[in-house]
Structures are given as structure tokens and as C-alpha cells.
From TrEMBL:
The lineage of its organism: Bacteria, Bacillati, Chloroflexota, Caldilineae, Caldilineales. It holds the Pfam family DAGK_cat. Signal peptide: none annotated. Its cofactor is Mg(2+). This is Diacylglycerol kinase family lipid kinase. Gene3D superfamilies: 2.60.200.40, Probable inorganic polyphosphate/atp-NAD kinase, domain 1 (3.40.50.10330). It comes from the Bacteria.
């Protein structure tokens, strides 16, 4: 078997990534799978490492970290893959705070099992999303595998980066409470085209807009609960402007798969593409990673079956 390139984020899971390097090495040795570990040193570095690894001929590149690490590795592999070809050879060794994407597609959190999956080589073909966002000066282009969020949801990601002592989804719960004090609810215009080609428009003050390739974000929150990762579509959910009491009432409902269903303040849809404009610049995240603190316009589209993941 060819050598697997492992990109380890030592900061994943609030520092857990740096403590499990030995466990990962042990799992590869037990499975008899040759490997090479390289640590990423900061934001964006895993993108460059993954791009270089694919260019150097590594057929399998494993992201050892959380959703942010997977996001960067996916983008690095995408940059090294022609746009008309599937992105192949992605493996995941989950060690983050949320692990949303890997959980949804069926990657084991047990390193021995995850490495055995690499040895066997079974893959799952899933969709990928592509975002182009304008911040007033530049257009930022990113792929995403899990979800993209504008407004309040992204502000939660911003606040979560400031929390150092908590772990797991509790980080995002506390960050949500902090975000309530730090975010205005501006006027959005959302235009999207569904799977049948029908165009839809919504224009009003909104708390947030979320586009999901999977149903879960932040380790426990189901904002696009009906999203299916391989149906050739993305799901969209947006909530109208709410009072703090309304936000607090909505929050626990996001923690179950059916909690948001029937809520008058929340609108759901499915899309092939969408354009989102906002009168007041808002923060945006892709797979939990802050893309920008001030986006004015964003387009998103689905790339059906673009990504192949070892499961």
C-alpha cells in the first residue's frame, strides 16, 4: 500500500490534536499502513500542505482534526484537482470539537477503525458546495463540505474562538449566548433556484442564513436538519429577525432533528444555487472557519458528487 499523508492539526479540539499524535501513529502501525505525519502550524497551512501532497503524488491524504481541518484539506485537494474531475483520496481521522461532517458520512471516531477503513479503501461519493463571497474589495472563493452560515450563526463561530476553557458543543452553546449581545439583524435578500429550476426570493431583516450540505453544525445543532449529503442539492434555512427572547426560545429547538420544523420564523428550501445580499456587512463562516467578518454579497452552488471520502 502507498504511503498515506496525514495532516495533523495540533490545535484541533482545543489542543486535543497535539495530544493524540501518538495514538494515530499506533493505529497506522497496527494496521500495517505506511504513513507520514505533517503538522499544520496555523490557519490556512493545511490547505497548502494538502495541495502540495497531491501534487507530490500522495493518493490518500488524511485530515487529522476537526471540521476546520477537513475544510482546509478539502480546499487544498480541490486546488490540485482539475475542476471537471472528482476530488479523490480524502481520509479523515476525527479529533475536533464537533466532527459534524465525518460523523454524518460515517467515519469512525476510533482511530484503529478509521485507519482500517483507509487500508480497505471503501469510499463514499458526496456533494460539495462552492462559495464566492464579496467583502467590498475582494471576492473570496472557498469549497465547503458541511455548511456555510451568514449572520448570527457566523457570529457564534467568531465568539467560539474567544472561549478557551470549555470543550465540545458546550463551546458553541456558550458562544451563542455571547453572540446575542454582539450581532445586529440586517436586511437580507435571498434568491435561490431549487432542484426543479424554480426561482425563489425572500427579502426582509433576518437573524441568519444557513446553507447545509449536511444537517448538523457545531457538534449538536440541526439548522438544516433535512440536508442529505449526496442528493445533488444543498439545503437552505433562514430565520427572520427575532428578539433575544425569540432567539432563546429557538435555540433549544436547534438541538433536535425536528425542533425547527413548524417554526413560523424559520423558512426551509433546497437549492442548486443561490445569491445572498445584505445591506449591512455580516460575518460568514465555511465549515466553522471564519471566511470574513464583513460580507456584502455571496453566491453558493452545489457540485454534485464532486468529493470522494474514505469511510
Amino acid at each position: 500500500m502507498e504511503t498515506v499523508k496525514v495532516i495533523l492539526n495540533p490545535y484541533a479540539g482545543r489542543g486535543r490534536g497535539g495530544r493524540i499524535a501518538g495514538d494515530i501513529e499506533t493505529a497506522f502501525r497496527r494496521a500495517g499502513v505506511p504513513f507520514e505525519i505533517e503538522e499544520s502550524g496555523g490557519p490556512g497551512e493545511a490547505v497548502a500542505i494538502a495541495r502540495r501532497a497531491r501534487s507530490d503524488g500522495y493518493a490518500i491524504v488524511a485530515a487529522a482534526g476537526g471540521d476546520g481541518t477537513v475544510h482546509e484539506v478539502v480546499n487544498g485537494l480541490a486546488e490540485a484537482t482539475p475542476e471537471n474531475k472528482a476530488i479523490e483520496g480524502l481520509a479523515i481521522l476525527p479529533s475536533g470539537s464537533g466532527n459534524d461532517f465525518s460523523d454524518i458520512i460515517g467515519v469512525s471516531r476510533d482511530f484503529d477503525e478509521a485507519v482500517q477503513a483507509i487500508r480497505v479503501g471503501n469510499t463514499r461519493t458526496v456533494d460539495l458546495g462552492l462559495v464566492e463571497a464579496f467583502d467590498g474589495r475582494d471576492t473570496l472563493r472557498r469549497y465547503f463540505d458541511n455548511n456555510v452560515g451568514l449572520g448570527f450563526e457566523a457570529q457564534v463561530s467568531v465568539e467560539s474562538r474567544k472561549i478557551k476553557r470549555l470543550r465540545g458543543f458546550v463551546i458553541y452553546l456558550w458562544a451563542t449566548l455571547r453572540a446575542m449581545r454582539a450581532y445586529d439583524q440586517p436586511f437580507f435578500e435571498v434568491n435561490w433556484t431549487d432542484g426543479e429550476g424554480t426561482r425563489h426570493v425572500a427579502a426582509k431583516p433576518m437573524l441568519m442564513v444557513s446553507v447545509g450540505n449536511t444537517g448538523r453544525t457545531g457538534g449538536a445543532f440541526y439548522i438544516t436538519p433535512d440536508a442529505v449529503v449526496d442528493d445533488g442539492l444543498l439545503d437552505i434555512a433562514f430565520a427572520g429577525a427575532l428578539s433575544q427572547f425569540g432567539i432563546l426560545n429557538l435555540l433549544p429547538r436547534t438541538m433536535t432533528r425536528t425542533g425547527l420544523h413548524g417554526q413560523k420564523s424559520v423558512t426551509f428550501g433546497r437549492l442548486r444555487s443561490a445569491t445572498i445580499e445584505v445591506r449591512q456587512p455580516v460575518p460568514v463562516h465555511t465549515d466553522g472557519e471564519i471566511l470574513s467578518l464583513g460580507i456584502e454579497k455571496l453566491t453558493v452552488e452545489v457540485l454534485p458528487g464532486r468529493l470522494q471520502v474514505i469511510v
